[in-house]
Design a protein that fits this description.
Helices cover about 35% and strands about 20% of the residues. It has an eight-stranded mixed sheet, sandwiched between helices.
Amino acid sequence: MTEYREHWYTTRDGLRLFARDYPHPAPRATVLCMHGLSRNSADFEDLCPLLNRDYRVIAVDQRGRGRSQYDANPSNYHPGTYVQDMFELLAGLGIGEVIAIGTSMGGLMTMIMAALRPGLFRAAVLNDIGPVIESAGLERIKRYVGKIPPPRTWEDAAAIQRTINAQAFPDYGDADWARFARRTFRAGADGAPVPAYDPAIAQPIDSAQDSAVPPDLWPAFAGLAGVPTLVIRGELSDILSADCVREMRARKPDLQSAEIARRGHAPMLDEPQALAAIRQLLASI
């Protein structure tokens, strides 16, 4: 298994954050992998070694997730803060240009970063996310993020993830859900699994202002003009609609797209269709 280096950095407001850094002696480029709302860098643990054959790969834990420090001020849990954290990470590593792979919230961040820093991205992958977020999917996420009942065992944790995500991964078996649980929970002080995120990340999306999701992302999407971009959609997604993908292609005719069969929100990017689409994008730059 490809080894990664542990990279720790401190943000402008004093939080200690973590990233997995997969080095390469002569990389074609650096790939920055950014996860979804309640997930962490473990989501990319299958993809990173494949990319690492040719690229340096950095997979992050956003603040309040994975091994990164929790924020005492939950109002900081929003994409604007995360984007600034990413700018600080890249500046600290001396990286001025990357290929972005963003799942869900990570894709929102990709669009925002592209608008704020033209020239930052050599290419971008938006995994099951676009400028229009379907309300049904957002409401589903609101129902469980920060509200998961505490599991007593790892078997309980796997059962919880099966209940939450069965529609998105209809062909997953027991072993898949067990691995899913290990990616999304960690061992607590008593050894019982606890979610690998701060429950307070739910507060912004539960607020009346819904500050965790910008109301109009089309201007941010326009920041990807001239950037080779791939949008991946799960066939069963309740976050990214086929209509939105069509509108994205209308506004960006060079947009590459792939729809992953029997996947909802969001594909894990270990699916053969997803890997083939990512390889095609990378070959085009």
